[in-house]
């Protein structure tokens, strides 16, 4: 697993109480933390601090979180978790379209935020993780190898990336469109049914005949449920 002290987190929020709460909590977990009280200060801080993770509030004076998100994504590799007091689908879609990697509505659980930070690190900075154990899965990104119940799975390169993405995001429903974007890439010109083909193959290799491990959520996508 990664060492938290190697991870730099920038929190951008105009609520001092939120900044203090998150800063203390994440520092106690071992992370390096920097805070900013508005969008402009946050962008300037990001240029010097080069954070791995940015926790970004949407509603701020000056430039809002959406504009900050767009600017940060143009700077390079950074994982952005957006915070909002709203829970509207349109707001989430707008943030994700601009490049946000995750979305949480206030109020939120600190433990859930930690879990989402862990997922972002595993997904976007695998070189900092190396090997990780998630339930019955052991993922070795250096060897591009996944073990399930101590058994090495025989996977193609795409099957490896797909299964890793599903497992790292276990418990979260992932749509076919999202899976295509994250595994195949935005420029993939194929059809969404390619996801079904690969899911079927993974279920066979995992001996998941009853679809209890990789569940189909009708009308929404797929979700990995760990035992």
TrEMBL record:
<feature type="domain" description="Response regulatory">
    <location>
        <begin position="8"/>
        <end position="121"/>
    </location>
</feature>
<dbReference type="Pfam" id="PF00072">
    <property type="entry name" value="Response_reg"/>
</dbReference>
<keyword id="KW-0804">Transcription</keyword>
<keyword id="KW-0902">Two-component regulatory system</keyword>
<dbReference type="InterPro" id="IPR001867">
    <property type="entry name" value="OmpR/PhoB-type_DNA-bd"/>
</dbReference>
<feature type="domain" description="OmpR/PhoB-type">
    <location>
        <begin position="129"/>
        <end position="226"/>
    </location>
</feature>
<dbReference type="Pfam" id="PF00486">
    <property type="entry name" value="Trans_reg_C"/>
</dbReference>
<keyword id="KW-0597">Phosphoprotein</keyword>
<dbReference type="InterPro" id="IPR011006">
    <property type="entry name" value="CheY-like_superfamily"/>
</dbReference>
<feature type="modified residue" description="4-aspartylphosphate">
    <location>
        <position position="57"/>
    </location>
</feature>
<dbReference type="InterPro" id="IPR001789">
    <property type="entry name" value="Sig_transdc_resp-reg_receiver"/>
</dbReference>
<feature type="DNA-binding region" description="OmpR/PhoB-type">
    <location>
        <begin position="129"/>
        <end position="226"/>
    </location>
</feature>
<keyword id="KW-0805">Transcription regulation</keyword>
<dbReference type="InterPro" id="IPR016032">
    <property type="entry name" value="Sig_transdc_resp-reg_C-effctor"/>
</dbReference>
<dbReference type="InterPro" id="IPR036388">
    <property type="entry name" value="WH-like_DNA-bd_sf"/>
</dbReference>
<dbReference type="InterPro" id="IPR039420">
    <property type="entry name" value="WalR-like"/>
</dbReference>
<protein>
    <submittedName>
        <fullName>Response regulator transcription factor</fullName>
    </submittedName>
</protein>
<keyword id="KW-0238">DNA-binding</keyword>
